[in-house]
Amino acid sequence: MIPIVLVVEDEPAIQELLAINLKHAGFRVVQAGTAEEAESLIRAVLPDLVLLDWMLPGQSGAALLKRLRADRRSRELLTARLHEEDKLQGLEAGADDYVTKPFSPRELIARIRAVLRRRAPHVAGEAVEVGNIMLNPATHRVMVNGQPVELGPTEFRLLFFFMTHVERVHTRAQLLDEVWGDHIFIEERTVDVHIRRLRAALEASGQHERIETVRGTGYRFSGG
Ligand code: CA
Hints:
alpha/beta, five-stranded parallel beta sheet, four-stranded antiparallel beta sheet, 12 strands, 37% helix, binds calcium ion
C-alpha cells in the first residue's frame, strides 16, 4: 500500500517541488492550490497525510484543518503544516507536525515518514500482527499460524482495517466508508457478504472468531 499525500500549496513552483520530491520518495501525490480544491480531493481520495500550506488565498490552512477535524471521515487524517518561520505559532491549531519554509526536501520527507510511522504504522507499509494473524501491506500477504491465507482484495482491505482498529464497534456504514471509500451505490448487506467470506477464509485456523457480530450495530474485531 503506497501512502497518498495531499499537497495543498498555492504557489505553483513550491507545489511542484513538493510533489516531485514526494513522488521520488515513493509516495502517491495529489495536489491542490486552494483549501476548496483540497476538500473535494479529500472527499474523492481519502489521503493518508495532508501537507498543508498555512497561507492560502481564500479559506486559510487553519480554517481547512478545523473543518477536517469536524468531519468524521477526515477527523483522524494526519496533517503536517507548512509555513513561514516567522508565522510559527506552535502546534496549537492541531496539526501532527509542522515544517517551516524554506524547507529542505530531505528533512521534509523524513518528517512525513516519521509522522506516518508514529501515527499510522500500517500506512508506512509495516506489517501488522494480531494474535496469530500477520498481515503485510507491502507484500499483500496474510499469514495465519505461519501459513499463507488467500484473500480477495476486499477481504484483504477489510481485514487490514479490522487489524488496525481492533476492539472498536464499526457499523456497516462506517465499514463501507473506510474500506470501500465512496459507497453511494453499495448496499449495506454487501458488507455482510464480505464478512462471511473473510470468516470462511480464517475458519480453519479458528481466527474467524475474532470477527464478532454486534447485534443491531455492526462488527467488532477482537484483539485479545
Ligand atoms: Ca502560500
